Amino acid sequence: MRAYLQQHAHLNEAELATTLALVRPCAFRKGTELFRPGPVPDRLYFIETGLARAYRLVRGEDITSAFYGAESFCFDTLSIVAQVPTELYFECLTDVVAHEILIPDLNRLFRRVPPIERLGRRINETLVCGLTERLRAFQMDDLRTRYLALLRENPALIQQVPQRHIATYLGVKPESLSRMRAQL
Questions:
Q1: How many whole angstroms separate alpha carbon 16 and alpha carbon 2?
Q2: Predicted pLDDT of residue 7
Q3: How much is the average pLDDT of 9-17?
């Protein structure tokens, strides 16, 4: 996390020490639930290594909404920003090494360490742009185009994640994804 903060937030030594004092290293085994539906989460995770996903249950089916890999922040944006209960499960797809920060501590950092507030804003801007592009792809692109874009943007994901999670992330049943892949 130190390297990420130095590269992306450009903190001086005092700001870095203040920030790192509020961050707790942690590790999770594959299959661990980081969050589950319920109250507004009181923390978020920065994933150092490993892979996690967010999903929801819709009429008994598990639908993947996001993947979180190395050097990404894992949290329910809607729940934390709007202060509404989360509807999502977050699970580790591999062993994960992460850093945890409590939301009240993060809010204090936003007020006391301006580069952290700017980093938070850039992260949220990136999330909004990514979600806007994902919505555009769902509205405009066919499955083949969405799959090839995912493969181009994150080829390792295809190797690490079960096909059923990739399929629901792309908005289709696993059988449809399998048929489309056979035609490539």
A1: 8
A2: 92
A3: 94
Residues 147, 142: Cα–Cα separation, whole Å: 9
Helix intervals (H) in the chain: 2-8, 13-20, 77-82, 103-112, 114-140, 143-153, 155-160, 163-169, 174-182
Q: In this structure, how many other beta carbons lie within 10 angstroms of the beta carbon of residue 130?
A: 11
* C-alpha to C-alpha distance for 22 and 35, rounded to whole angstroms: 20
- Give the span between the Cα atoms of 10 and 27, in whole angstroms: 26
Q: Which of 33, 42, 54, 46 is nearest to 83 (CA)?
A: 42
Q: Rounded to whole angstroms, how far apart are CA atoms 155 and 174?
A: 18
Query: pTM of this prediction?
Result: 0.93
2-140 adopts what CATH topology?
Jelly Rolls (2.60.120)
**Secondary structure of residue 154 in the 3-state scheme:** coil
Strand partners, 38: 86
Domain ranges of the chain: 2-140, 141-184
**What pLDDT is stored for residue 50 in this prediction?**
97
